[in-house]
User: Fold these one by one.
Assistant:
Number 1:
Amino acid sequence: MFENVIKNDVTAAVLERRTIREYTPEMLTDAQLDTVMAAAMMAPSGRNSQPCHVRFIKNSDILKEMQIDFKNIVGWDTPVHTRSDKNPFYHNAPVFAAIFAEGASYMDAGIMVENICIAAKGLGLGTCIVASVGALFEDADKGAKWRRAIDIPEGYRFLIGVAIGNPDEKPEQKPRDESHYKVIE
């Protein structure tokens, strides 16, 4: 369908990115993390409102404790995300970016997530966009605990997150339905 795609580093990162659910334990370098954070910060937002607050959590003890609280809320046998039978919500990635905003700035958060994912791919990293952990932050008790622990302003809510790390798998592209894309002349 798309016979004339221009190839460059940016289009390659967009077209070759895959969801990664298996990661090596290797931590991101400071330069990698700074680059991904800069990409998040430079994401456009409606009227340049910059509503999102992002926490890049790289403390494995915090992530493990968050996973325990999350599973205690949703149930240990509940299949809340792909591979939830063997992976925590952050898929054992060494970094989890949690995006919060006041109100419903889902579009701004989505744009930011894409910037994070494409920048990470350009650095040779993998990503998995995660929404299921929202149940943790919406819980009256545990949500308040974790928002305080990671310094989220009062009244802000979790919108979406991204697991980030060095991929330990190379999944194939899933099929796309070309009938969803048309040029109107």
Number 2:
Amino acid sequence: MVDPINYSEVTGEQQPDKSLSVPAPSTKQETRLNWWQGFLEDIDCVFERDPAARNRLEVVLTYPGFHALLSHRIAHWLWQHRCKLFARYLSAFARWLTLIEIHPGARIGRRFFIDHGAGVVIGETTLIGNDVTLYHGVTLGGTSWDKGKRHPTLRDGVVIGAGAKVLGPISIGKGARVGANSVVVKDVPEEMSVVGIPGRVVLPIHCRRITEHGIDLDHHLMPDPVGKAISSLIDRIDGLEREIKQLKGEESGKNPSASNGSSQPVNGRNPDGDLQASAPPESAPNPNCR
């Protein structure tokens, strides 16, 4: 069975005010499910986020993300009932089978989906809410050797792009997105997007397109903050060059020698700036020469 996630139980935080947040990623009523209902829900959530899925049998037989999640549900139950050796053994077997490593101590909510899956690592104290999507190569890791909370918390509706690293006991807000290959080491607000190394918040909710299911799959449509900064610098340089040309034109208008086309040398130099050769002075006549 999958129990509703209580964030304050693990992180010591107050739960966010639902009246101030964007509508939840899923409109399904959050009720306690038995094992069969949870099994079917884990299968059906694949169809909302992967257009390649055709039927339930295909998901059950061929999706490594589903295999890893199913194994984790069992391993987590064993972990909670103090059968930790068997839980770790089942987790290790699932890693060998699927290339996805999920520690049996991690708590994962409903409708969790791992697409492709190879290389995903989820640490022991990770807390994952409902309707969360991970792509291949994602790491939810720690940054210390402390025994306490050392892995991230992902709230409902979070999407983590391929190859992203979310490190430390940080919180990724509800509905947030993390771009591919980003490295996130700080908290991310709700409904925001993060890209880069280290991760930077770049895209608010009103700039995004949300599907009818409330899940934003356009994680590839990420702005480039570095490219935007370079573009701004280029525009600034172009503006400065125009100002310099304008100032040169005004200075030329104030110079009379330049305006009337005079070619008189100034200080021994011609208008081009070259030295002007002067004629030698005439010598006085020698009285001895007659």
Number 3:
Amino acid sequence: MLESTAQAISVSPFDLQKAMQHLSAIDEKLAELIASTVPFQLHSDHLDSPYEVLLKAITYQSISGKAAATIFGRVKALSDNDRAPSPEQMLNLRKPALRKAGLSGAKILAMKDLAKKTIEGVVPTLEQAQSLSDEELVERLVSVRGIGAWTVEMFLIFRLGRPDVLPIHDLGVRKGWAITYGKKHMPTPKELLKFGERWRPYRTVASWYMWRACQRAGHAAMRKIRPHIAKRRSPRNPKPVLTKSSLGPLLLIKHSQKGANYETDRFVYIGFSCGLHSDGMVARARR
């Protein structure tokens, strides 16, 4: 979670009491969790622009919070005002200086792209972001190198305080769900998305309480929660053969099934970046 410690203020752009009453009324397990843990609250640095929040998010990717805080402190030291370098400053900073601060080559490229797209207006100002829908913000921000849907979801929750965000790929939310509902395995993102429909229009609040469930249960309980077990493929089904296609960032999976007078090739196209799935069917007469 991307919670800022400096100049933190409470973010509550919606009626929290109404949200918790609504969730308690429709979900008995969640009601028990709400009643037995700390009240919902979000904190954010009111000075942070979307650019600054995302710059920090890039720094924190894939490393411990302590190490990331140290590196981000060094990055801020490269500016002249004890804040993160401005987009213009970031573009002018040389790679060796950023590497010396502790950033990887990939993170440097991501930060440079973030700065470029901020100047171009792709990354909105805070005022602009507040007027855009969740979907519009996701579409804009994931175009930045190194920024994925999860990072944008954390921005929506912790900087903008949006009430109806459900980070279905977040391990904390998924493990918290398993703990809250007494399950041995985490739900798949698809299962969590379906289950979370009951939490609308306050899925942010429900997600926050899933994080609290993990915190309250402790590391020992969390380690007992296992990944989702995928269903085994039926032995009757032919093993998929992966082949290259001309469809850009897609995989072509071919299944051949023989009939009495024809063969059917079933092609399943899987989009890497957006998770969209569609099936195509091609039949041809046997010779």
Number 4:
Amino acid sequence: MKQFQIQFKPFFHGENLTDKFLEEFQEKQEEELTEKIISILEAKGYKVTPPPKEVKDEYTFDRAWNLYDKKVGCKAKLEKKWNSMSQKDRKAAIEYIPLYVLSQPNKQYRKNFQTFLNQRGWEDELIGATPPPAVINEQPSEISQLITKTRAVQERNTDDAKNHALRQRIFGMIEVLEKNPKSFCKSLLEIYRDNGTLERLGIEWNPQT
């Protein structure tokens, strides 16, 4: 079968349109024109490979490919797969990859990048990913910055969850104590009051004497 690959550049420029509208209009026109040409060529017996979808944000395939650093598989197919992902998934993968690389420093034991994408590997739990010590006066690398950012989010989420659980537990103790003034919960609440936990969690407790 005959092979034919097409790719188009912007072809319409309107002087009186805003930049954003012009860009959206160009993309729509290009897509429609591409579909029409593909249909015509396929009707004539050509096997057409559409131009790859472009990523216009910072979460690019090349960035992920280099961070992952296990260059196995067809790069063109992997890039097409990557570009078809949502921005949310690409962002999550970019932020996850540095920690995954640290947890598997020997690339031999890392999943192939295709497997990582197909299995949505960025949703897996990580064990043993510890950032390397920083060198004095060294400019933080991208991987170090991503690790720091990811760990900060994880720690914040963990602290929030712990505080929420403790807050619910204390409210439960107060409810029990109201029903049974002789409950041992009073001693625990006094400890939380004296060590500042109640104040830190924004809980007011005024026991009746």
